[in-house]
């Protein structure tokens, strides 16, 4: 009886000796399991806000090894996996991208084994800095459009760009079939891209904007991350001879028609040079005060109007001077084709309008005026290739 009681007391003593301070059993002698945040350490801290894009981002363990790390970036209502890698010794995970995205939430889920082989899991989140100022680029031409061979890819920024090289590196313009495409800056607010010569018909051009979080000016960051494309249609280049009052329309190199025109009058001549159709309007109002003149004209229903320059040069139908095309130049700088009020489909203006695309080239020669500026509309074809390439901010 005494021997049995001694055995019970001895076992009770062992049990008492194996209890931890919290009353739990620890038969392995390892003590209380550590908290997940002590095993898996995430930088930035859980719940951190306004984290800078250059901040250090790591997941690490002081001992043992990381089994898995999953990171998701939530930005603009989209969740994107963040690629990264665990070091060879298993102690550290780092993202492949050095800088953090702005205005984003990062969610970290990590699993690790500590130095004693015990598994722990950690869930952590933080949010990054939201800039007060953003910039975007308005792109020409439109996505999925079919354009003429003279189209130039043009980005107009809503803010002045001071770090033009950083922005230029974030815009990628490619073509299939491949052709060399180079950028040119006009001031600090416009970036254009073109090949050395007009695009070949059938070319597919892709524009990738990777502007999001690019610092275009101190404290001003890009917002866009998107890709769009357009297709180059048939070739149509029209040659306006202001002295002869004619326009030769060539389709894929072959003469399609010679059309009578009226160009700018002696005191309001038409620019010489290559111009690109950037807008096509069935009918529009033209008021001389909007282009720097006085009250010389205000025509509420100009038919078949195609914009050639930002400064107001159009090629359009003319019904108010029906005898001028082919004989005399009477316009205030535009190129006029014979038309009727309301626009007729069987008139020279209607015929040309129906056969034109945004991106077609109209070249004016023999006008008593200067050559159109390369940044007036899509006038970049008036600049030599060497000078065009010199306009890149990336040397």
Provide structural commentary:
With 395 residues, this protein is mainly beta. It is built from 5 helices and 29 strands. The chain is elongated, with a radius of gyration of 34 Å. The N terminus is likely disordered.
What does the main sheet amount to?
9 strands, mixed
In terms of structural class, how would the helical and strand content be classed?
mainly beta
Low-confidence stretches: 1-29
The number of helices is 5
Outline, from the CA principal axes?
elongated
Determine the fraction of residues in helical runs and give it as a percent range.
under 10%
Cα distance spanning the termini = 98 Å
Tell me how many strands there are. 29
Which band does the percent of strand residues land in? 35-45%
Q: pLDDT average, as an integer?
A: 91
Order of strands, main sheet, comes to 24-29-21-22-23-28-27-26-25
Radius of gyration: 34 Å
Characteristic terms for this protein:
395 residues; mainly beta; 9-stranded mixed sheet; 5-stranded mixed sheet; 5 helices; 29 strands; 10% helix; disordered N terminus
Q: Outline of this structure?
A:
By secondary structure, the protein is mainly beta.
Fold topology:
Layout: H1 2-17, H2 36-39, E1 41-43, E2 48-51, E3 58-60, E4 65-75, E5 78-81, E6 84-86, E7 92-95, E8 105-113, E9 119-128, E10 133-135, E11 137-140, E12 146-147, E13 153-157, H3 164-169, E14 171-176, E15 181-186, E16 190-195, E17 204-210, E18 215-217, E19 220-222, E20 225-232, E21 236-241, E22 246-251, E23 254-262, E24 273-276, E25 279-287, E26 298-307, E27 314-318, E28 335-338, H4 348-354, E29 361-365, H5 385-390
Parallel strand pairs: 2-9, 10-19, 12-20, 21-29, 27-28
Antiparallel strand pairs: 1-3, 3-7, 4-5, 4-8, 6-7, 8-9, 11-13, 13-16, 14-17, 15-16, 17-20, 18-19, 21-22, 22-23, 23-28, 24-29, 25-26, 26-27
